[in-house]
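User: Could you check the structure of this?
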Amino acid sequence: MTDLPASGSQREVVADLDGVERVYHLGDGAVAALDGVRFQVRRGDYWSVMGASGSGKSTLLNVMGCLDRPTGGRYVLAGRDVNTLDDDELSELRSRKLGFIFQSYNLIPQLDVLENIMVPLYYQEAPAAESEARARRLAERVGLSDRLRHKPTELSGGQQQRVAIARALVNDPELILADEATGNLDSQTAEEILDLFDELSRDGKTIVFVSHEAHVAERAHSILRMQDGRVDEIIENAVRAP
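Assistant: Sure, the predicted structure tokens are below.
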């Protein structure tokens, strides 16, 4: 019997973008923020998306995160064509399959660390005891088990981002999307957050990380470079981290 090759092509496709376009109409004109983007994200991939300001990388993340719909082409997330879903179905898909990490953290100031981590589970109507137990485990994983009752204003930037990472993981998403997640952090704290992303990748999490900084993007296993709304270059690293 011949063994199958240990190829990334054998892994399940989580996100499939096929000729995706996103056009915005401004007055009498139109701007193509995305222009025929094609690439696939497979389970366990760690991608970074690079490009200058205005290259379309944030629009790409918004489309991949179902915060915006394609105006052309096809985007399939976890086996569902997003353009065939109504708003309620899209919200359900987003809440169950995706985890978001933003540059500005987007924590709820009135809630403490534990409550912020639990937010995605509120929308799934998960049992309170189960939600809290899961949030506590994730808080410990990101090094915040001693800050559970602190509000976001009582935390450093790095600690707030750790809360955001735990919140993104609490629903066990199929795809983690991070938009300039280290952009507001000092270099040492940014390195600690990137180490955490590396650890998540080693654990088999599927990650797409947007950054304009080469040294950050190069932590990923594969790089997608964008220019003027198009894919300029794809660099896939065949040697995956252990």
